[in-house]
Amino acid sequence: MLRHVGFLFCFAFGLTLLGLYVAGFIMYLSYVPQGLRSRTWPSVVGHVQQSQTASYGRGSILHVEYEFQVNGVDYASSRFRFSPKNGPSTGEAPWENFAPGKDVTVFYNADNPNQCVIEPGVSAGVWFQIAGMAAVLALFLGISWSSLRRAPAKRGAESSTGAVN
Questions:
Q1: pTM score above 0.90
Q2: CB neighbour list of residue 93: distance below 8 Å, 6 or more residues apart
Q3: pLDDT given at position 17
Q4: Domain containing residue 123
């Protein structure tokens, strides 16, 4: 009985981890359609209102807030790119280009200018994360499938040896 409780706990814990992993994978995948569409968006000159660095474990990211105008309507955003890391890191771009008052090219969705970015497309980092996560997920599913396919044969062998004794 206690053995079954331990198995059920481990199974539930594993399913929870798998669910979180798949949710993260889907989150990364959600950046791809927007990023690909943004490569064809029109552009306009915007102005940096504020920029500041945010430190994290492996470096710093620049957070840029900018304003721009489309058909006489003012818009503001801080979306740099379609990526969880929403801004250039230390080695990616000269931060002086994003100092307050500087002009930046803003790419915007013509149907909804509130959807806009400074860097259109899908960053290499997102593609790398998706490829890595897909490989791990494929490995997990392959191991699971292999285990499930072999399990009935294993059970059949155990029952036939049990009948001989």
A1: no
A2: 62
A3: 81
A4: 32-134
